[in-house]
Amino acid sequence: MNQPDASPPVPPAPHSRGRHRATPQRSARGRRPLPALLVAGCAGWVSALVVVALKGTDVTTDSTHDLHIPGGGSLSLLRSVLFAALCVQIGEVAGDRLARDVARTLPGGAGDRSPRPWGTCAAVAGMAAALGLASMAAAGDGSLTAGLPELSEIYGTRDGRIAFLEANGFLFSALCLFLGRPVWACVPLAGVVAAEAVRAHPEANTPLLGMALTLVHLSATVLWTGGLIQVLRTMRAWHGEPGAARALLAAYARRAFWLFAAICVTGTFSTLRRLPLDQALSSAYGRTLIAKLVLVGAVAVCALLARRVLVRSRSATYGEVLRPTAAELAVLGAVLVLSALLTVAPVPRT
């Protein structure tokens, strides 16, 4: 008599399974167009930056009749890759630490997910770029087609020695990642940043001051750009937790303000040291620097728009916050390329 009463609980199971299955399907359909748009947009923007790196030096030197730099396009592209590798690696460490600090302040298990690490790929790319720079310095004619130089030829030039040391820095950072110690990788990467500061100031007049300014300037730029890359990737991983993603971006914004201030101060002093005001518009270095300053201003505007959305609208969606923040990152990429162009452009005589 009781057996017919025991059967009714069975039918709800398919409805329960169907209900749980429908939600991920709707979520997947809602997210599916985003990666395709991101990939297409990133590919187009990166391609444009590659063209700027390859052609920018020739365009500026030809228009100002400055000294032509052999292989200037290749040098700019390789140094852009080196800067990007620094941003990805150091930003990944700083962004992960920031995400852990934010996650500890959130209730429950919010912020447990993290994006896939890119550090190893960035280390390999940075090492390859540094070896390319060392080879070009050893060749002396700005060419990459002469084959691999001898170690003695690399050490025979100042830029070759510095680039080879930078390649070793990326190699040691990759070893730290292989050992599962990503924080340790910051030590050799700090050496790479210091080597770039030394390379940028071969002048005999107060070189230590110039090195210190470049060291702070490049470090702040790398942390700002790399940190934003990792924050955006982490926000994507926390897509189902809008409160956690907003808290992470807000924490990054507070730190980015001081990085931006450091970039402005050190950049201003470096410009006053190296660029005579009467040559700001008549030299390739001055024109490239002005273009960089315009882009830095655009970055600041994008950052302010993102913070405004973050502060004024607590119900803002991930996409509403992402748009100005992604634009900030895109313009920062252009700033890195112009910074690489500045390392190749001939410095005006004071």
- Alpha-beta classification: mainly alpha
Shape: globular
Question: Quick one: how many beta strands?
Answer: 0
User: Which sheet architecture does the biggest sheet show?
Assistant: none
Which stretches are low in confidence, meaning pLDDT under 50 for 5 or more residues running? 1-33
Mean model confidence by pLDDT = 83
Radius of gyration: 24 Å
Order of helices and strands: HHHHHHHHHHHH
> How large a portion of the residues is in β-strands, by DSSP E?
under 5%
Number of domains: 1
Helix fraction bin: over 70%
Query: How many separate helices?
Result: 12
**Cα-to-Cα separation, first versus last residue:** 104 Å
In brief, what are we looking at here?
This protein is mainly α and 350 residues long.
Descriptive overview:
This protein has 350 residues and is mainly α. The protein has one domain. The chain is built from twelve helices and no strands. It has helices spanning 3-6, 12-31, 33-64, 72-104, 119-139, 151-155, 158-178, 186-199, 207-237, 242-274, 284-312, 318-344. Helix 4 (72-104) packs antiparallel against helix 5.
